[in-house]
Amino acid sequence: MGITERREREREEVRKKILDAARELFATEGYEKVTMRRIADAIEYSPTTIYHHFEDKDDLVNALCEDDFAQLLAIFKGQLPPDDPVEWIRGLGTSYGRFGLENPNHYRFMFMTRAKFENVPEPSRSGQDSFTVLKMAVEAAIASGRFRPGDPQLMAQVLWSSIHGAVALLITMQPEHWPHGAASPALLDEVVENGIRGFLAAPRKA
Fold first, then answer.
1. What is the pLDDT of residues 73-100, one digit of tens each?
2. Domains and CATH numbers, the chain
3. What is the model's pTM?
4. How far is it, in rounded angstroms, from Cα 48 to Cα 45?
């Protein structure tokens, strides 16, 4: 490995340390309380090092969003669409839920961290593309007659919203805080199934 390649790898390693530290701090302490110096202290670097990689905190937040949504998009794109579009939707919902439960800090930052930007950020391209995959699956389900006719944008939003709600509860509530006992292990699967059942086309009469 040459000097240039080694320096680039070292730079990427530092950048990853910054992103990982920032994600955890934003998720646990909140966007407004976390400063660039706080992030630098967490990884034992100087604030100047952070600014070598990111212009300001908003720039860092944008990079975090894109990085995390890119991971989710890679999971979605790694699934070959089955012949049945409903199975495709079921797989996307299950993968989305698993991503949130296995990466709670990522998920809290992506969807549950309030941020007050000095400059309004551009929407994450990977985030937009992730939703597009779900919308495409809904469109395929409508076109095949498996879903009833409707607005695929709205349907995709309903499906995502219901799964998001379940994931958010599962990663924020302690088992003892759930009413009448901990959440059922089947909760997420049932939320996915319930969303699908709400859009299934009525069986054709003989």
1. 999 998 878 899 999 999 999 999 999 9
2. 1-54 (1.10.10.60), 64-197 (1.10.357.10)
3. 0.81
4. 8
